[in-house]
Specification:
Blueprint (H helix, E strand, L loop, with lengths): L2 H11 L6 H12 L5 H6 L3 H20 L3 H13 L3
Helix pairs in contact: 1-2, 1-5, 4-5
Length: 84
Amino acid sequence: MNQSLGYLREILAGYTENDAMGKRIFDKISNRNYVTEGQFVEDLTQVENNYLNRVLVDAIKYANQEQDAERAHQLNEVYELLFI
């Protein structure tokens, strides 16, 4: 699995219990074989895209606060593609 998508899946794991959209996107990452972040983003619905837009802002902010530059960078790779 692509490293960026691995980080995203890890974050979404925390959203699977009480959040149907988080679980739906988590399952999509887990059950499909995306080679690139671009393939994943192209497969998102507009609703999923909007959801990830909100989740990733918080996740990137948290990674930066924890001084985890690699995680912040990888998550930003996906975040930027949401707007293309």
